[in-house]
């Protein structure tokens, strides 16, 4: 009986640290997912104030602004609006929510 108790105690001591480490790993994984979350969604109107259409890239998708036209976009804060040449035309921040950004 004494050998059985000793074996049981040894088994419990061996497995307890493994279970503890597994719980810590799960917590680390959850924290990593939180850190990778994107910013809040921002609702912005992109307005073309010129007489010529303009091509932009929004989140890797082409967007054409018609002459004197506008397009509404909903994007996470931190999104960059690019020109066709790759230059950054605008970086969206949360303070732009429900604002209009004009391009010429």
Task: Give me the secondary-structure topology.
Blueprint: H1 2-35, E1 41-48, E2 54-58, E3 61-65, E4 70-76, E5 80-83, E6 88-91, E7 99-103
Low-confidence residue ranges? 4-11, 23-37
Shape: globular
Please report the total strand number as a whole number. 7
Summed up, the helix count is 1
Q: Give the spatial strand order of the biggest sheet.
A: 3-2-5-6
> Termini distance?
87 Å
What is the H/E string? HEEEEEEE
Percentage beta strand: 35-45%
Q: What's the average pLDDT?
A: 78
Helix content: 25-40%
C-alpha Rg (nearest Å)? 27 Å
Backbone structural class: alpha+beta
| Biggest sheet statistics | 4 strands, antiparallel
Describe this entry's structure for a reader.
About 35% of the residues lie in helices and about 35% in strands. The chain is α+β, with helices and mostly antiparallel strands and about 100 residues long. Strands 3-2-5-6 form a 4-stranded antiparallel beta sheet, with no helix packed on it. A hairpin with a 2-residue loop joins β2 and β3. About 10% of the residues are buried.
Briefly say what this structure is.
With 104 residues, the protein is of the alpha+beta class.
Features:
single chain, alpha+beta, 4-stranded antiparallel β-sheet, 33% helix, 104 residues
